Amino acid sequence: KAKLDYEFTTDWLENKNGEDITPLWLKENNIEIYKNWNMSDDIDYSNEESHTPWWKREMTQGEIGCAISHWAVWKNCDDLDYITVLEDDALFNSDMKLREYNMVDKLNTMDIEWDLLYLGRVPQDCALEKEGPLPNLMIPKFTYCTYGYTLSRRGVQKLREYGFHKGKIIPSDELLTSTFFPHHREDIRKIISPTMRAFSFKNLLITQRSFNEVGSDTGLPEGKTKA
Length: 227
What we know:
With about 230 residues, this protein is an alpha+beta fold. It has helices at about 25-30, 50-55, 60-75, 95-110, 155-160, 170-180, 185-190, 210-215; strands at about 30-35, 80-85, 90, 115-125, 130, 135-140, 145-150, 165-170, 200, 205-210. About 30% of the residues lie in helices and about 20% in strands. The chain has a six-stranded mixed sheet with strand order 2-7-4-9-6-5. It has a two-stranded parallel ribbon with strand order 1-8.
């Protein structure tokens, strides 16, 4: 019987619906979320006006569950050369895996150190981003969304070393971008310092299905949108 090259995580301990993640469950499983996500009104973030609606609120239960599930993948994945992480709303073409494999092979063949490769994302600092060392490759800056990305063996190890479950659980995209780019929030920079070397496909391989199609419990309250 052929071995599948993917694994569903529905039977993992950490794979919980947001509403099932209670303070008791977190305590029993030695997981601690970041307690100060709701940005204080007395802090001047005028230079980050587009992001403040996203930060001036508590994390949703869905965001907590999503972040824990990503951390669980990094914690539980086998010792592989690289892994691909896809969320359930990822939308990709049939040649996505081949194009991903070809890029990873080129990076490795040319001995280019890499930890993270975005297959899909929503860049926030496009004007600051530069071309990468290979065609169709970018060096990402502050980035939202974690619906599709690849990690090298070294990248997985670096993520494990952060110990995110010890008081650093924040929304998964804010968490991941903090590992390779200084977060725009000073308090997050103090707990998560960039150590990862990240790249992104310029022509993205993955997009997201629309909110109207799949819904979401990781978004802003009604009437607000993420930058």
